[in-house]
UniProtKB/TrEMBL annotation, chain B:
Chain spans, region Disordered: 192-212
Domain of life: Eukaryota
Source organism: Nothoprocta perdicaria (Chilean tinamou)
The protein's name: rRNA biogenesis protein RRP36
InterPro entries: RRP36
Main location: nucleus
UniProt keyword annotation of Transferase present: no
An individual GO BP term: maturation of SSU-rRNA from tricistronic rRNA transcript (SSU-rRNA, 5.8S rRNA, LSU-rRNA)
Keywords noted in UniProt: Nucleus, Ribonucleoprotein, Ribosome biogenesis, rRNA processing
Subcellular location as annotated: Nucleus, Nucleolus
Annotated family: Belongs to the RRP36 family.
Subunit-level organization: Associates with 90S and pre-40S pre-ribosomal particles.
Amino acid sequence: MLQGRITASVGLNVAKLQDEVCRHLASILVDNAPAKWLQQQDLTFLVGEEERAEEEAFEDGLVAERLKEDVLEQKGRLQRPVAKDVQPPDPDIIRVLRGHQQPITCLVISPDDKFIFSAAKDCSIIKWEVESGKRLCVVPRGKKGTEEQQAGHTAHILCMAISSDGKYLATGDRNKLIMIWEAATCKHLYKFTGHRDAVSGLSFQKGTHQLYSASHDRSVKVWNVAENAYIETLFGHQDVITGLDSLSRECCVTSGGRDGTVRIWKIPEESQLVFYGHQGSIDCIQLINEEHMVSGADDGSVALWGLTKKKPLAVVRQAHGTHGSHSLQQPYWISAVAALLNSDLVATGSHSANVKLWKSGEGFRKLEPLFDIPVVGFVNSLKFSAAGDFLVAGLGQEHRLGRWWRIKEAKNSICIIPLKRKAGVADSS
Amino acid sequence: MWGCRVGSASRSCLLHIPSSLSLPDLSYVSFEELLQMQNGMGMRTHRVTAGKKTAHPAPSRVFSFRPLEMSAKKRVPFLRRVVPVTKKVGRDPRFDDLSGEYNPEIFLKTYGFLDSIKKREKEMVQKQLKKCRNSQAVLTGGLELSLKRQQRELAQQGKKPFYLKKSEKRKLELAEKYAELKRSGKLESFLSKKRKRNAIKDKRRLPSQKSL
């Protein structure tokens, strides 16, 4: 596909060269010929030529732009300037979908942006339709006797992942199990055992059916869902792993909780890159593009990381402020971070009654606040849609990992927040 | 075996070779002969003589900001160091430069307080010794000594030495105690205290109000 594009651009260049020559000759003619002769000639072709040349230059520019983007995406440094066009949404267009009885712990959006899968502390999974807000499938908690007939989780579901073709859904719970479901029908397919403690992170490699899982037993396991097989285990973390994410490379990134490290696992080379410099327990992590990621910690700090530097590129301390009485001011824990793929828009969530949107600066070296979206409760999960049209937040009355606080006014629900762009901007995605 | 061109990437060496040394070109040597050479020389020397001139650059300061790369297959032990604990290094002030030169005047001035502490301690210990001397510890010692003297006399005379039972020894000690108390006049108070203590102990054995 790339080769086709190159030849197309080369072809255009050749045509452009011909036009250039023609135009040059025409201009010489116009300059040197006697005025009377010129008046008699029909020179409309010259104007037409210019228009066509402009059009072609425009197309050529578009193709070049697209090629450049592809190259940057492959290298992992693509950063589309989307953040400056995003506007704060009206509170009335935020949709709240209720269905879970207990706080939502995690959610995923299907790659075609049509469905949302959410899981809660009541061990159930619900498939929602984005447009109508209806509940399509409900997978209730598993009962003791009926494990064969009705498969379901029996402990809190901590993480979920969906494959990039929308075929498989994977969920991990506190009972060391990973369950694989068919996304379209919510039918139970496989059960992966092997972890020795709660499964806290799951992610599919984009474009494949390879699943990475991270657990509280400090190991990362690689599975192949299509073949129902376990591949290998990777070690290195010194404390429970709190989050995991991956893109199309055969690499995944994990956040290590109290050991204060973020690690990139290079699976084919069986090695890891260790990043540190974050204070507090790192609780959530997401990849922005192949070479940059954003993480949040329980001391309120949000950090942007790049693959070439062991310390974060940008850190914002106490991103959501502090709470508590006069002498006991504690920073709000960052419970969820999300980033729009290959762009500069970052969202963070805590229990400070709002979701904050940030703009990452040039080369991800700065993080500036954009605006807040008011929500009530603990933001346990945040996900951007693939096209960047909306942001989904999973809310609960409690933190997804425990019951340190309880916000009575909050409703256990998922919030769909549409993100408006400024008018007159063409969406290049 | 078929001769083939061996890729130079597989022969990178880790030592710096001086540029004056000319290296043989092993590109067109067959695999079998290469293996024979390796087995004869050993891997490291083979790499040195047959590898490229370029060596891996030593990790310079420029790369200290890059993330650390480690193997992902080594298991991490369960117990880990959370707080760095440093070993306390003891210093001998006699041989440490930090203490400076010995100056008797300054030393006596600054550490003169230790003498007063020593004196106080000596007085306290002497007092305690006085107390102890008058207490039973000496008496029981006397009792034992007298017993031992008795045994020795009997043994000398040829008779078999006899040893008192523990209960007999305790009886004798009790008798001595009573005699001492009577002498000093504290017998009455001692007996009353003993009676009180026994009364309390017996009360515990009786059925209490709660059990009714």
